[in-house]
């Protein structure tokens, strides 16, 4: 499978969508961050430019992805029928689950998904909130980690002279493709890609910022405490974690697995993290609006109980 064209890379958006109807949750006031994020609504994100290539991949826009959404459409007001729609109604998600569960190892299953182009989580461009966060001026400088980076759009969007970014993925295919499309970009000296298992990987340096999206919800829930401990171990004591949270409930299987805000709190609080704020992701793509939360967490060493 060849890489997407530059146009497709920047404009294609295909996604899972999950419903969530509760109001924004503010766990701890962080007024500076909140004001900065709110002022970004009128600032459009800058697009990335990728090398022109050809592709045989089928592209899907937001309108075409809408049938995958829970019944009730794209508004924020959803009924009970919306909340319990299983993403496996999407044939690609059902097939993805088959491959992941049938693999000899977790890495084998994800590798097969990339080989077959079964990557419905892939937007084909940076997650919209990432360029907004970069432009806000509130992000820490230094080393950044994006686990489960896929083709690396977010990695490239974070990278700058003041911010070196490591994109990590368990799939060799994903990392190879990420390197191919991004190697000639102007900021290529400020990011790197590595094919590694997040849970056993040992970085040589700690990170100032970790960005988690479509990773927490993809790992088996039994691994979530290990995820939190790993985040703690590779993040600097005053580092920051940013999570984009899918709210998914009443599924029988995954990935993506059932995920709530409380699931993050349950594993992060014991290892010393406190939420600066958690609120609706106002920059979510069309089918995801009203169904995602953005959380910013600080690690406080003295709070850790493990």
UniProtKB/TrEMBL annotation:
Q: Which GO terms describe its molecular function?
A: S-adenosylmethionine-dependent methyltransferase activity
Compositional bias annotation for Basic and acidic residues:
77-86
- Fetch the Pfam families from UniProt: TPMT
Task: Report the InterPro entries cross-referenced here.
Answer: SAM-dependent_MTases_sf (IPR029063), TPMT (IPR008854)
* Signal peptide (from-to): none
Arranged from A to Z, the UniProt key words for this protein are:
Methyltransferase, Phosphoprotein, S-adenosyl-L-methionine, Transferase
Q: What is this protein called?
A: Thiocyanate methyltransferase 1-like isoform X1
Name the source organism: Ananas comosus (Pineapple)
Lineage at the top is: Eukaryota, Viridiplantae, Streptophyta, Embryophyta, Tracheophyta
Q: Please name the gene that encodes this protein.
A: LOC109711306
